[in-house]
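Worked example 3 (structure in, sequence out).
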C-alpha cells in the first residue's frame, strides 16, 4: 500500500511564492555581510535551502504536519555522494523535508530542477547523509531567520500560504 503525499504541488508552490521576497532580502543581507558572493544570474532560491527547510518544518508543524529536515553533502573520502544531484551528475549540498515516504523540496531550482518537487524518498537525485545531530547543528544558525519569515507568512483556512508585506 502506498502512502499519499501530505502536501500538494499547489500548496508548496504557494509557499514558494510567499518566500520569494524573503529569499531576495536574505540574499542581499548575505552579500552585505560578505558571507555570500553575488550571483545575479542564479535562481532566487540560491543558497536558501537550509533557511527554507527550517521555516517549512516549523510552519507546517503549526498546521499539524510533522516533517523532518533532511540533507546531505559530498565530504570526500567518507561521502562521494550526498545532497542533490543536478542534471550533469554533480552533487550539491542541500536540505529538504521528508515524511519518511516523500521528499518535499521548493529550492531545487537553484540546481536547474523544477521549482517544486514532491518525489518518493527513493529518488536518486537525493542522497541524505547528514545525521539527525548534524541537522540540528546546521539549523541552529538559521532558526531566527526562519522564525522571522513565519511572522510574515500565515496560512489561510486551506493551509495555503499568504504573504504579509
Amino acid at each position: 500500500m502506498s502512502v499519499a503525499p501530505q502536501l500538494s504541488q499547489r500548496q508548496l508552490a504557494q509557499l514558494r511564492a510567499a518566500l520569494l521576497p524573503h529569499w531576495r532580502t536574505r540574499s542581499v543581507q548575505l552579500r552585505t555581510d560578505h558571507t555570500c558572493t553575488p550571483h545575479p544570474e542564479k535562481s532566487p532560491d540560491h543558497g536558501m535551502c537550509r533557511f527554507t527547510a527550517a521555516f517549512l518544518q516549523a510552519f507546517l508543524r503549526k498546521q499539524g504536519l510533522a516533517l523532518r529536515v533532511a540533507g546531505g553533502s559530498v565530504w570526500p573520502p567518507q561521502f562521494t555522494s550526498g545532497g542533490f544531484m543536478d542534471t550533469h551528475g554533480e552533487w550539491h549540498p542541500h536540505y529538504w523535508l521528508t515524511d519518511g515516504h516523500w521528499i518535499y523540496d521548493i529550492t531545487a531550482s537553484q540546481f536547474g530542477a523544477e521549482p517544486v518537487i514532491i518525489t518518493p524518498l527513493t529518488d536518486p537525485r537525493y542522497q541524505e547523509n547528514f545525521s539527525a545531530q548534524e541537522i540540528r547543528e546546521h539549523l541552529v544558525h538559521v532558526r531566527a531567520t526562519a522564525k522571522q519569515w513565519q511572522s510574515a507568512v500565515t496560512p489561510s483556512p486551506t493551509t495555503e500560504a499568504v504573504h504579509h508585506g
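Notes: Residues 14 and 109 are 15 Å apart (CA to CA). Residues 9-34+45-153 form one domain.
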